[in-house]
Amino acid sequence: MTVGWRYVAVVIDSQTMTMKLYLDGEPVGEAATTLLPRDLGVTTQNWLGRSQWTADAYFPGSLDDFRIYNRVLSKAEVRYLAGDR
Fold first, then answer.
1. Residue 37: CB partners within 8 Å, gap ≥ 6?
2. Is there a contact between 20 and 29 (Cβ–Cβ < 8 Å)?
3. Quick one: which of 69, 66, 77 has its CA closest to 22?
4. 9, 78 in Cβ contact below 8 A?
5. Backbone Cα Rg of the chain
6. H helices then E strands: how many in the chain?
7. Which of 34, 59, 74, 76 has the fewest CB atoms lying closer than 10 Å?
8. Residue 59, SS3 per DSSP
9. Which of 70, 63, 75, 60 is nearest to 28 (CA)?
10. pLDDT averaged per 10 residues, the chain (length 85)
C-alpha cells in the first residue's frame, strides 16, 4: 500500500471518445469509451470515496482539491496541477 499523497486525474475527451488516467502527472492508462458523463442524465448518488452499493467498502484515505473542468486538459496542464512547476 502506498503511503502519502498521490495526484489522480481522469481526462475524458468527448471528441475522440477516449479517457486518459494520470497518476502524479504521468499517463498510466488510456481507453476508448462509448459513454460520457452527460449520457447518465440526472443522478442522485454522486459521492466521492463511496460506492452506490452498500456492499462496497468506503475509500480508506483522504481527498483534497476535487475539480471538474468543462474542457479537456492537456498533458502539460495535468502535470502542472500535479505539482510539476
1. 12
2. yes
3. 77
4. yes
5. 14
6. 1, 3
7. 34
8. coil
9. 75
10. 86 98 97 95 92 93 93 97 92
